[in-house]
Amino acid sequence: MKLHEYLSSEGALTVSQLRALIHVKSDAQIRQWQHAYSARKPSPEYCVSIEKATEGKVMRWELRPDDWHAIWPELIGAKGAPDVPSEPRIGKDSRAADAVVPIPDRERRAQAAIGEG
């Protein structure tokens, strides 16, 4: 269950109750995570605290879906755990490897000044 789903469900903790349980300074921080303002995510420590405070209704992998497996590799294959997200491929078979990345003018001038460009 996602944090916003949990907080709007019947019988859930309020934002203020959750804040007090996990020792966050303000309700606003919880709301930022709840609504993913500016793609903000709780720290790994807060993810574990939220999981415990919600009695496992909000799992840490739901709070950090892109990197949970790198933070908590022991959860890979755990009951209910999602599949590990695939990593972007970089290499001989990848189009990204053939991409031309422009060098910003300032960096190009710095390279030319020291004789690398």
UniProtKB/TrEMBL annotation:
A UniProt-annotated Pfam family: YdaS_toxin
Stretch list, region Disordered: 79-117
Gene3D superfamilies membership: lambda repressor-like DNA-binding domains
InterPro entries named among the record's database cross-references: Lambda_DNA-bd_dom_sf, YdaS_toxin-like
Domain of life: Bacteria
Name listed for the protein in its UniProt record: Transcriptional regulator
Organism: Caenimonas terrae
Organism lineage: Bacteria, Pseudomonadati, Pseudomonadota, Betaproteobacteria, Burkholderiales
